[in-house]
């Protein structure tokens, strides 16, 4: 499955994740602020890792619209001559 | 993915998505458990269009049903929206000799890989041995009585598989909700 370059950014309570993928690899990083018990400050936890996995492995984590955009990433609209020829064929078939 | 795809379907769907650009898994015989489903294909179904001169064209053609399955039972939606289905091989034969062979080959590949936003390509639809295209940009609506009559007279000729149905939803989603051009500005 060939997927184009794609970027997803999500953020939640104190946590942000960001990853990009291509057909060959996924780069993933995370940065989180974590409250530490009774201490009046937060520890900053940072983690970054490059993972060689198929983008397909990440499909379950996508929302529906993002999933459609990833699966159909190479989609394009009809160009001028394609639209003209398709319309010509379509109307001829409808009138046949 | 969780909001649309059932948890127990995820693994199978991902296995099918890995097969892209091969789409033989999209459709099968008419579903034996329900007589009308979103994406069902019907023969000789009425469609109506206005052409560029304003002339009305009302004919019967093969179509794919677009309504959500929940709106299709009798007593629910009074209208059914359909998209017309055409023979891809017949279309390509008409274009052969009229176009640059390389351009036509590239266009055909994009259609067969389901890369054209306005079209859904179905490779193994009954009565369309070399593949069919559904024009998602030519949706029309007719009274739901026509769907009842078509279903009861056995004119349904194919239904989407479970994974094929999810791909149909992705095509509809992409077609209708893709990003606007950066040149578009709204208040």
Element pattern of chain A in H and E = EEEEHH
The main β sheet of chain A shows up as: 4 strands, antiparallel
Mean pLDDT of chain B: 94
Oligomer: heterodimer
Output mean pLDDT of chain A: 61
Counting DSSP E segments of at least 2 residues, the number of strands of chain B comes to 8
Structural class of chain A: alpha+beta
Low-confidence stretches of chain B: none
Count of runs of 4 or more consecutive helical residues of chain A: 2
User: Helical stretch count of chain B?
Assistant: 5
User: Which structural class is indicated by helix and strand composition of chain B?
Assistant: alpha+beta
Percentage beta strand of chain A: 35-45%
Beta-strand portion of chain B reads 25-35%
Cα distance spanning the termini of chain A = 39 Å
Rg calculated over all Cα atoms of chain B: 17 Å
The biggest chain-chain interface is: A-B, 30 and 46 residues
In brief:
With 96 residues, chain A is of the alpha+beta class. Chain A contains two helices and four strands; from the N terminus they run E-E-E-E-H-H. The model of chain A is unreliable at 1-52 (pLDDT under 50).
Key phrases:
heterodimer; A: 96 residues; 4-stranded antiparallel β-sheet; 2 helices; B: 187 residues; alpha+beta; 28% helix
Explain this structure to me?
- The complex is a heterodimer of chains A (96) and B (187).
- The model of chain A is unreliable at 1-52 (pLDDT under 50).
- Chain A contains 2 helices and 4 strands.
- In chain A, strands 1-2-3-4 form a 4-stranded antiparallel sheet, with no helix packed on it.
- Chain A has one domain (6-95).
- Chain A has helices at 64-71, 80-95, and strands at 6-12, 15-21, 26-35, 42-51.
- Chain A has 96 residues and is of the alpha+beta class.
- In chain A, strand 2 (15-21) and strand 3 (26-35) form a beta hairpin.
- Helix content of chain A is 25%, strand content 35%.
- Chain B has helices at 10-17, 88-95, 101-112, 145-152, 162-177, and strands spanning 27-28, 41-50, 56-65, 79-87, 119-122, 132-135, 140-143, 156-160.
- In chain B, strands 1, 2, 3, 4, 5, 6, 7 and 8 form an 8-stranded antiparallel sheet that branches.
- In chain B, a hairpin with a 5-residue loop joins strand 2 and strand 3 (56-65).
- The chains are: A alpha+beta (96), B alpha+beta (187).
């Amino acid at each position: 499955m060939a997927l184009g370059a794609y970027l997803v950014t999500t953020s939640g309570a104190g946590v942000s994740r960001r990853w990009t993928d291509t057909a060959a690899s996924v780069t993933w990083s995370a940065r989180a602020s974590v409250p530490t018990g009774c201490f009046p400050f937060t520890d900053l936890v940072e983690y970054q890792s490059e993972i060689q996995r198929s983008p397909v492995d990440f499909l379950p984590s996508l929302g529906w619209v993002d999933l459609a955009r990833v699966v159909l990433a190479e989609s394009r609209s009809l160009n001028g001559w394609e639209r003209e020829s398709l319309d010509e064929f379509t109307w001829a078939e409808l009138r046949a | 993915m969780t909001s649309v795809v059932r948890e127990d379907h995820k693994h199978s769907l991902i296995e099918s998505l890995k097969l892209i650009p091969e789409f033989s898994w999209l459709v099968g015989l008419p579903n034996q458990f329900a007589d009308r489903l979103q994406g069902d294909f019907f023969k000789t179904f009425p469609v109506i269009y206005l052409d560029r001169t304003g002339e009305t064209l009302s004919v019967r053609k093969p179509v794919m049903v677009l309504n959500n399955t929940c709106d299709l039972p009798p007593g629910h939606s009074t209208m059914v929206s359909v998209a017309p289905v055409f023979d891809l091989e017949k279309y390509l034969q008409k274009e052969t000799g009229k176009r640059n062979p390389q351009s036509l080959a590239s266009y055909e590949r994009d259609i067969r890989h389901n890369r054209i936003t306005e079209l859904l390509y179905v490779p193994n639809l009954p009565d369309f041995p070399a593949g069919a295209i559904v024009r998602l940009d030519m949706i029309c609506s007719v009274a739901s009585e026509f769907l009842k009559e078509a279903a009861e007279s056995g004119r349904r000729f194919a239904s989407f598989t479970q994974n094929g149905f999810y791909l149909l939803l992705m095509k509809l989603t992409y077609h209708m909700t893709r990003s606007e051009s950066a040149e578009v500005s709204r208040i």
